[in-house]
Amino acid sequence: MEIAILTVGIVIALCILFYYVPVVLWFSAIVSGVHISLVQLVLMRIRKVPPSIIVQAMIEAHKAGLEKIRRDELEAHYLAGGHVKNVVHALVSANKANINLSFQMATAIDLAGRDVFQAVQMSVNPKVIDTPPVTAVAKDGIQLIAKARVTVRANIKQLVGGAGEETVLARVGEGIVSSIGSSDSHKTVLENPDSISRVVLEKGLDAGTAFEILSIDIADIDIGKNIGAVLQMDQANADKNIAQAKAEERRAMAVALEQEMKAKAQEARAKVIEAEAEVPRAMAEAFRSGNLGIMDYARYQNIQADTSMRESIAKPNGSASATQPSK
Predict the structure, then answer these.
(1) Which residue has the higher pLDDT, 13 or 261?
(2) What's the rounded Cα separation, in Å, for the pair 108 and 241?
(3) Contact (CB, 8 A) for 211 and 154
(4) Among 34, 73, 145, 207, which one is least packed by beta carbons within 10 Å?
């Protein structure tokens, strides 16, 4: 029983020893030509830096001929939250592709949140980005819907602080809209779609971005709506509604004026009736005061009869009846 406990204790002690003193990893580094002391590996464990990551990165860099990468720099980058493997992979790829990429630049790109290894690959093998459908209207009012393919290459020097793919797509879309909008006819654009590419490339859309635009190719152009005709129809409908509103306003004013004239006419007739009602009273008063005699009254009746006859003759029906002989 004591022997078993002692054996288990020895095994545990050896596991702890080999965990903090990675002899196998140290031997692997020595065999690969990387000079690192066993004490440094132990100190890495104490600093909570995985020795395997640092040693493997140093071995890869040494085999690729990158002798300037130091252990403490790799440890500092790991402690800063960087991806040591990606940085070393990127440096090796850049060295093989004759791309000028320093360790400081690679770590800065990695800490900025970009995949530095993917960026190096994109520098060697450019990436093709498909733009979403871009809608623009030519001067003749015809709408065109264009799709473009943008071939970009990563700009290593602009990866830190440079704009991403969204900015490139937005600028390309803006350039396509500007190019189509400046064309006199949509037929010109359909006949020479490469003119859009030339105009857009001349604008230098990759300035301040993390990419270098190599080419812009128009993949497809479709004809959309006749925006000019739609706008003219809308304007015509608006003008018609305005004219109808003005006509309705004039009609309402005419109706109001007619009602006002009718009211004034009724008021005038009321005043005439009121005045006519005063005539008999005035005549009675004239009889009583002696200002009106029988002969005066008879002449008044004759004048009234003559006036009525003239009015009947002046009317069309009255004139017709007056010309017919009495039976």
Answers:
(1) 261
(2) 64
(3) yes
(4) 207
326: left (phi over 0), alpha (psi -120 to 50) or beta: beta
- List Cβ neighbours of 125 (8 Å cut-off, separation of 6 or more): none
Over the stretch 275-300, which tens digit does the pLDDT of each residue have? Answer: 777 777 777 777 777 777 777 777 77
Q: Report how far apart, in Å, the C-alpha atoms of 327 and of each of 150, 186, 218, 309 are.
A: 109, 90, 103, 19
Nearest to 276 by CA among 304, 298, 315, 305: 304
| Burial zone of 58 (CB within 10 Å; 0-12 exposed, 13-18 middle, 19+ buried) | buried
Give the model's pLDDT for residue 9. 62
* The 3-state secondary structure of 225-277, one letter per residue: EEHHHHHHHHHHHHHHHHHHHHHHHHHHHHHHHHHHHHHHHHHHHHHHHHHHH
Q: Which phi and psi (to 5°) does residue 92 adopt? A: -65, -45
- Of 79-83, 132-136, 207-211, the range with the lowest mean pLDDT is 207-211
Phi/psi zone of residue 290: left (φ > 0), alpha (ψ -120 to 50 degrees), beta?
left
At residue 24, the pLDDT reads: 76
Q: Which residues pair with 142 in a beta bridge?
A: 226
| Residue 287, Cβ density class (10 Å: 0-12 exposed, 13-18 middle, ≥19 buried) | middle
Nearest 5°: phi and psi at 223? -90, 130
Q: What tens digit of pLDDT does each residue of 202-225 get?
A: 788 778 888 888 888 888 888 888
Rg (CA), the chain: 52
pLDDT in tens, 139-183: 888 888 888 888 888 888 777 777 888 888 888 888 888 888 888
